[in-house]
Batch of 3 targets.
Target 1
Amino acid sequence: MIRDIDRILIARGAISDRVRSLGEAITKHLEDVDADQEIALVAVMTGSLIFVADLMRHLPMKIRIQLMTASSYIGKSTQTNSDPVIGKLPNVKDMHVLLVDDILDSGKTLTRIRGKLQELNPKSIQSCVLLRKKLPSAMEVPCEYVGFEIEDEFVVGYGLDYDGYYRNFPDIGVICP
Ligand code: IMP
Ligand code: MG
């Protein structure tokens, strides 16, 4: 598998340090939320699979984990298609929502999902992504927590895939052209 990876962009140690500090920042914010309020961590599958598993272990408060799905690619493509397909929405009425995804690229997925969740009348919504591409489209999307800013190149590993592969690669890397 490693043969297909051209170079490592973010090594596992740097990822884990950053995930810990994101967890601390989110915890600081959520601790101010009234203890009687429900907190929902809504994770967008499948890309955020590993990120959210690591992140939630740095969130010590009582939270409900809700998974939903979104997909933006048709087969072997590195270009997101115009309309992400969004799966069933979790019930987040009157909850404080932390929406977690792997990466902001065109920004369409997070914008769509956040808009749809907002219609369900949560108490609040904040978003968290591990990666954000330095693209105007991605920078425009409201996102309270960003792990790393990266150049506009296609990355895999730590949950991110190309055509369903490489999600299990423990670092974030760039695949061979
Ligand atoms: P967006 O809607 O264009 O922001 O794309 C978001 C989704 O596309 C992410 O949740 C990822 O699943 C996927 N995606 C975007 N860029 C990459 C990449 O560089 N590698 C792997 N997946 C990506
Ligand atoms: Mg995704």
Target 2
Amino acid sequence: MTAPARTRNGYARGRLTVHDDPAKLTPVSRALRAAGRKVVLVPTMGALHEGHRELIRHARSVPGNVVPVVSIFVNPLQFGPNEDLERYPRPLERDLDACREEGVELVFTPSVDHMYPPGSDTRIVAGALGADLEGGPRPGHFDGMLTVVAKLFHIVGPDVALFGEKDYQQLTLVKKMVRDLDFPLSVVGVPTVREPDGLALSSRNVYLSADERPRAVTLSRALREGAAVSAHGPAAVLERARAVLDTEPALQVEYLELRDADTLGEPVDGGRARLLVAARIGATRLIDNVPVQL
Ligand code: AMP
């Protein structure tokens, strides 16, 4: 691979410019906006797969003269002490190739020191929803996630930010933070990209063994079959999904919940709901969710 050409503000790879320093990225992004470009941010932790690529393609399809910006940062604040921070995959060169293939113009790859220099201990608090569902077994996870997302929003200053529905509670909390704290941008959710058998794509799927991989599909099958009986009401949805989950003894289900699609509170009769599941299979923790019309 040829060495990337240095430019004044980072290094260029084809049309792609990579910055690791927030102080360098911010003026570039501001200048692009001042020139009439629409900055669309796709925040990621890297190890880019087809789900991330779909977010990037979605970014490019936003109306206007779009600059797709991807951030790649494995955020230590959102990992618990016994989680996979150290072994989380970080294939940066492959990720940059994927970004170039998808027509990304700017990539932001800060180091932990760039994002959290010594003494940087101010945090966003996720509120009650932050302690629910994923927040139960992962205390502080959403505070850490919202803190980095708020920083990314300030550093990049996007017009639009895209998040996957795959992480539905994250999407809901980011929308809520933007509303509650008056961030001047719009947050858009993108439907989950799945393997042909239904498994939601995730950077963590690489942890699944050959034996676990086919078993993991039970998660999405349970959600699909549950959603299919929504005409019979919320109890039927949960009962059907639970029955499917119970067919796979390797799955340790942490929660299966039907919630209101906007607030993640109690589902409303006749409203849009979301069926969400979290389960462990061996050492790997997987989450998934689907829309349900009640
Ligand atoms: P991550 O790198 O896991 O933090 O994910 C970065 C973004 O990609 C988040 O907004 C995720 O919700 C989204 N994402 C992850 N997996 C998928 C998927 N299978 N389909 C759509 N979006 C996804």
Target 3
Amino acid sequence: MNFARIPRENLHDILRRMPKAELHIHIEGSLEPELIFELAARNGMPLPYATLEELRAAYAFTDLQSFLDIYYAGAGVLQTEEDFFAMAWAYLKRARTDNVRHAEIFFDPQTHTERGIPFATVINGLERAVRRGREELGVSASLILCFLRHLSEEAAFAALEEALPFRDRFIGVGLDSGERGNPPEKFARVFARCRELGLRLVAHAGEEGPAGYISQALDLLKVERIDHGVRCLEDPRLVARLAEQRVPLTVCPLSNVKLCVFPDLSAHPMGKLLAVGIAATINSDDPAYFGGYLNENYLATFTALPELGAKEAYQLARNSFQAAFADESVKEGWIRELDDFFAQQCSG
Ligand code: ADE
Ligand code: ZN
């Protein structure tokens, strides 16, 4: 593919239109302020914010924990199966407009079961949206159950037990929430059990936590992808390992800036990660809180980093399909569509 033939002024249009996958989206992080107000009213729940503007003004985060406090409070308005459906359906419609062909969607059941919401309510609502998204929007989607790492190993085992009757509704498990002080090793036995069950494995690591947590996630949890992983750059040997083993990183640039991992996008290491051969992808993390969905993450990152051009756009979209937990034949189909799209761009 002769990427040099693609004029730079076409880049934004290409980023918007190219087919892509999203592999790191917390569905509770897609809950827009308008829907929070709507669900709070419907469910008769008082909010500590009088207006949408007041709620939005609270979205000024200094670190991961300052975000998580607001994110878990926002998720408190989700009460019924219909609420979970509405949230996921809104995300999938939005993903379609960003030309997302496939989404792997995280959900945090413990955030809800701890409030007395049955696991079935959560998964039934999400699953209904996923099915409808496939049928009506042509967007493929799968669910990944995340354990909250600030809670105990025992709580994670209990969450897994509760989820097992619904084993066919989710493809894998992940690990999220406050990273500092909650190393992957805390969940080694839970992940070993999930592995025996044939679940796909991912974990957040090296977002705020040290590079050593990335190695732990690989060696002790045996994850297949790392969520975030940007702090790998502090350890050259780890960078070499990630590149050599083609371990995918699901990187979330707007999230990284909002949570003060980097001061601004011009300081973001996306260009460097790709240049050293790491299988990085772009994702939105919690789009309702961090100022943008998937295409906004692509556009803002490419605007801020002049070293990213058409070749990197292709590479990122290709990485997203290759790193997906889907059948090889399906992934090949998506990559063929991507190749056709870029061949057309290169031929003028
Ligand atoms: N849960 C939702 N978003 C998260 C993030 N960026 N890091 C850890 N846990 C999360
Ligand atoms: Zn995340």
